[in-house]
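Obj: model holo form, ligand = iron/sulfur cluster.
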Amino acid sequence: MTDKPQQNQKKLYIKTWGCQMNVYDSHRISDVLKPLGYALSDTPENADMIVLNTCHIREKATEKVFSELGRLKPHKEKRQAETGERTLLAVAGCVAQAEGDIITQRAPYVDLVFGPQTYHRLPEMVAKLTGARQKKRLIDTDFPVESKFDHLPEEHNSQGAAAFLSIQEGCDKFCTFCVVPYTRGAEYSRSVQSILDEAHKLVDHGAKEINVLGQNVNAYHGDGLDGKAADLPDLLSALSEINGLERLRYTTSHPRDMDDRLIQAHGDLGKLMPFLHLPIQSGSDKILDEMNRKHTSDHYREIIQKLKKVRPDLAMSSDIIVGFPGESDQDFEDTMTLIRDITFVSCYSFKYSARPGTPAASMQNLIREDVKSERLSRLQTLLSEQQYTYNKTFMGQTIPVLFDRKGKEGHKSAGFIQGRSEYNHAIHVKGNERLIGQIIDIHVTETRPSSLTGDVVTSEYDSSHLKVAQL
Ligand code: SF4
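Output (holo structure tokens):
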């Protein structure tokens, strides 16, 4: 995500941690700042403004932010000393929301702290920090009554061929381990019209795939085009009508909100990709209850069965926490059994660690670190085997791939172009950069545990005499 800074433009450097919601927010932060003359830069050197868009989900999130701030402080001081220019150093996102005061106490050189719900006010904040009567520091971590989406600029920086679009924020589920309901607030859904408007703009800027985002995306309930409430299947169906938009995905869902209409949408909507990320967290009903997940492992299995009925090739992914307080050997074995029963093609798995302020943080019966590590290692071995076994079934197949980027210079992906299959495989191909932004058939020539490699199939391809060419 880089603009080409022109003369007199100000340099904006954004570092993003965490989920796709944060990636989306970073894009929108740059959209908000663009009219003020800020253009994205790849490096913090000589930046006029640096934004750390933070995530509170992972362990030691706050410490990671402070160590990054420590690294950036010399950049700010050096620039001030050499040019007299002030670099605005800002902390945004969920750590800012949860720990704004602590940040300004421990790192008084930070100029601005703002939460995920207030970045539409950045022009005002920047004006206060850079205007005639410069403020030394600002904190804006309210949950404003008005929606930020009503105030974000219509103009978009291009996100490329695969774009994110935030449709829902906040969460009312209150899982006992999670900070999101506290950092992102109550559930809020945008109207169908405003989402369609943004989707059209993304497609105009080259998006062929849109992944609609929400902390609890399948709880989506926005105002529909007919004035009545619309749910996620209604919205996906409306998005499917957009010419030029070829692929749809949605992230992240909660099992409680996987109703029959949404399940049926996986059978009915051709543009909805056959890949679903549906967090389960544990296979033990006792632990699911302690987590306040509001569903059982059988409910989860039932959802998968229904989904596979309408979309037999659906690939499943999930989130799993190991070593939640009170997790017995049997609870952990229940999780392993569930994984064997379902078969996931990818999965995020973590050792439990307490988030300050959450109910689970004061729970007893903590699990020893060595026990958590041993369980996580067994679980990840099983998940990796499942993923690799699944990937190997694609060997020799021809599959459509949406290319959205080139490999990184100085990285093993250099010289390749990269994209995603319909099943969300990462795919690397030696091919011409002009293929980026297109959906092209690929012949899979190599399978690895977490990605595939292939060759571009020529236009003369026919299924009986496969012709393969490297463009
Ligand atoms: S549903 Fe997801 S976002 Fe909401 S509290 Fe639970 S884990 Fe957090």
